[in-house]
Amino acid sequence: MLVVHHLNNSRSQRILWLMEELGLPYEIKRYQRDPVTMLAPPTLRAVHPLGKSPVVTDGSTTLAESGAIIEYLVERHGGGRLRPADGTPERIRYRYFMHYAEGSAMPPLLLALVFSRLPKAKVPFFVKPILRGVADKARETFIGPQLELHLSFMEGELGDSEWFAGSEFSAADIQMSFPVEAFAIRGGLNEKYPKLNSYLERIRARPAYRRAIDAGGPFEIMS
What we know:
With about 220 residues, the chain is of the alpha+beta class. It has seven helices and four strands.
């Protein structure tokens, strides 16, 4: 039995979505973030040394990292579904977006989260204006332009297709869902990006996506 070690408000939500798209039987083992620190509980380290989510166990196999999990499940249990054929341009795009999602799109979003919290840090009162100034300058000169760069890139990459790898929905869209949702919540995704907004509407309308939300609980992007 496939077991998804699911942390609330995390990247493991898209693993549940993949399970639902493939119609795979699975069990959810739930973990809750600390309400103050928002960190995963130490019990996750008993499953994988990094104590992060998602983690999937498949018999004696334990696998972490969203992209690796998605590729493993599609290759082992997908029966040819949710990935373009070998040797096609779509397969190249599929591989690219499987890696772009975490390797390039998420880092500026993580920086945006960190620097948004910096002015709220518990420090002496006379340090707060300095932290606020540093955070504002970082957002203005680096983080903001990076977010806009990636939004424009993703908007352009959708081009005339509805999905990131081409005309067909694939597991790359499941992988890309997390950064796109994160951009919608805290990364500046607005009406300037109609293709990305339409993309969000399409993924949220998929029955398997809705079933995953029902299974995993209310979802707000966290890092």
